[in-house]
Amino acid sequence: MRKIIFTLCIILCIVNVYAQNSFRVLVRDNETKKAISGATLLIKGTTLIAKTAEDGIAVFQQIPSGKQTIIIRNVGYTEQTASISFPVKQDGPLEILLSIAEDELEEVIVSSTRTSRTIQNTPTRVETIELEEIDEKSNMRPANVSMILHESTGISVQQTSATSGNASIRIQGLDGRYTQLLKDGYASFGNFANGLSVLEIPPLDLAQVEIIKGPSSTLFGAGAIAGVVNFISRTPKEKAEYNFILNQSNVGQSNIGGFAMQRNRRFGYSLLALGNFQSAYDVDKDDFTELPKSRDFTIHPKLFFYPNEKTTFIIGNSFTRSNRTGGDIFVITDGVDLNHRYFEKNSSIRNTTTVDFSYQTPEKDLLRVKTSFNYFNRGIDIPDYSFKGKNYNSYTDISYLKNIKNNSLIFGANVVYDEFNEHKVIGSVARDFTTKTAGVYAQDTWDVSDRFKLESGLRLDVAQYFNTYYEKKQAFLLPRISGLYKFNDKWSSRIGGGLGYKTPTLFTEQTETFQYQNLLPLNNVKAERSVGGTADVNYKTSIGEDWLVSINQMFFYTRINNSTILLQNANGNFHFENTALPVNSSGFETNAKIIFHEYFKLFAGYTFTAAKAEYLPMIKDIRLLPKNKVNLALLYEKERNFKMGLEGYFTDSQYLYNNTQTSPFWEFGFMAEKVLGKISIFVNAENFTDTRQSRYKSVVNGSHLNPGFDDIWTHTEGRTFNAGIKLKL
Fold it and tell me: What are the chain's domains?
């Protein structure tokens, strides 16, 4: 009997072994047919998980007999499933082809490098802020893009006026005049418009923001020493889209706007309209505004014409009118009297007309012609002083993209004309200034191998700039090179560098703070030149089925020679001169992103910046620049249902122009949004811990009749709560 039982046990064990099946799967990219390593495979309803090795093969052991479903996942690809009845005989591994997810592909196409490649195959380091994040930040500040950039690692929005809230953008610690702002590749926000530029770009029509940090003059000409920020508009699709937003805040700001777009076979359109209304706001009750009374309106229609599948013709016109009045709140509400007279009024009109023609040849080459004309009229008024002027800017670019087997070759030419005319005041000196620039450029992107991509470019610009007092003509030869090396599917690195330049301008953060009073015309000032570069290492991996981790470590360095510096003579007048002593900016940025189960997302960023101006006496640190900054954001999101987020930002101490140091500070924010079909409701608490400069020291000094103002180094308005409704049809 014992022998019979023993024999039956052996038979049962053998049957059980045979019932536990082994199975091999080979995972490849559907387009390139390359093996995909690190893909996750699991048997539905079991705890069996496997990962593909370098050769793309994953092996399962002890699969139960019967019909089983294998799920195959990898970041950036569409999930696949395969149903198999076990046991099954295998002569070779089962091949599974994964296709790149369409939404992922839309997110990573960049146009600022002129090649319209995916970001994974672009040698130039480009950071992108995608539609989802733009939509989230527009809930916080629908009026303009300042919030989008303020919370990006390595970028700061520098407020230049205590009462009117004017601001400019800094990248890697360098002044705003070294950053070029583009809208769809057009430069319409420099020079005289710089102080208001970031305040007059609404986010409602944006599809993506692309940021190139470091010298970019080879791609975009003068003014791109610190980097480039390119705001990319949405383009119409066959399915019509209509978006509307209504927002109200506790600080007296109201926003109402809409965006619509659609296309058919031959024609398309997009239309943006936005109105912003701000009441004068005095949070610390010192009788001076932290937020000015303002009325802004923007309308931006674009027409698209498609004569055939290869040709696109786009014409657009953007019009913005803005009126901002800050200062003594009694003057704003009741007018000037014996005890109250100070105000600061900014009035501006901006109109930009653009024309874009592109033609794709049968060989997939691309001819593109772009031209724009920008008119900007601005007036600044304070008691007993007025500064008014007009800026005309035109830009024309012709380029041809030639695609060869492993190369994308671009060559082209452009012409830029910029003219500033000051409204003449009797007895004053004329500060008119004109710049004409003509350039030719070429760029080659070479796919040396699947792992190594190399991009090199060269630009020759000839710039002529002049006013009543002097005229100069300079030539600039601007080489640039960058490379991308992919060690494997997880590790990659980019290294790049180049030369840059910036033609002279009167309009800087410093001169904006005193409304250009007692500022002499430019005289014998030459262009600034720069050399610099960036290098980074990127790591991206998935952990198990639910975790995705990516880390980017970037280092940067920029040296500006022949810097223009602001000096004051014995008569109290300000003027610019060149100095032989350089400006050096170096440091690093660390960015980490952790995603759990697609719902929880943690973003962390750290920036260290050591920027010094050698011409400064004693303390050489660049003013209003923290050495250390930390960005933290935790987001929970169920797509098209609900999202909420908590953000925290640390800013280290900064040197002011009087050589004193500020206190470091933290600021925190919270947001939530609920989607109810086509309607979403959002609430936002920005800086809810009420960090503001007046808690450390009064920003306003002196009397109501003749006030003075400290440098602005943190929030002036304090905590802000807002709520609104969005409608998407």
Answer: 2-100 (2.60.40.1120), 103-231 (2.170.130.10), 232-728 (2.40.170.20)
